[in-house]
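Sequence in, structure out.
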Amino acid sequence: MIHVLLNLITADPALLGDSIGYMESEVRPAVESQQGSLGTSLLANPELGVAILESFWASGDALRDSETMAAPSRREAAQRARAKVTIERYQVPVFEQEAFSDAGVGVRLTRMDVQPSAAMDVPLSAVEDAIATFGDTAVPWLAETDGFCSALLFVDWASGHSIAQTVWRDPQALAATRNAAGGDPGRYRNGGQLCDPLRRRVPAGVQFRADGLTGLLARGTERRCTGGSATLRNSDEC
């Protein structure tokens, strides 16, 4: 299964540009040269002073190896913007691409965290149910929306934390789809439910501009992998 590492940078908007430039020229080439890299995307919202460097990996081991290599560069990017950097790790059980993407596309990230309704631990079935709902219901609906390029679901199986990422042809297409932030799985069959997304570090429905895309989301890449079964979760096909 594909793995993704999110480096979330929050900074003074006036200082964010230098950090983004450093990540574009120094960090991304170093990350993409590592064994197991499937490409990166660099997302920015200058108005909020937020940038996210996403790196996609062929395995969990490749992701973990990259963290050690990238640690000095991550610190440098933070120092340039006097920023705070947080890291999140996910697997990607849903990836649907209808159109190729390029720099300048619009991207929306939406928290879709799953919490059990009556227990502390998130049951595996609740996470699988959320994945199936997103892949079988939300994605087909999004695919029929004008300007849609791709949809990905990032999942932490242990905690139930997840992020729906939708990519749109341009910021104008993104702005026209405020109600298409990834679908609303609502209450799942096994009693799981969405938690308050604002309690997590990436707020719900935040919009970004992609300053650069390589690999999975880039022009010339075509891939579809959608589903919520345990077979998919343990497969190398996605």
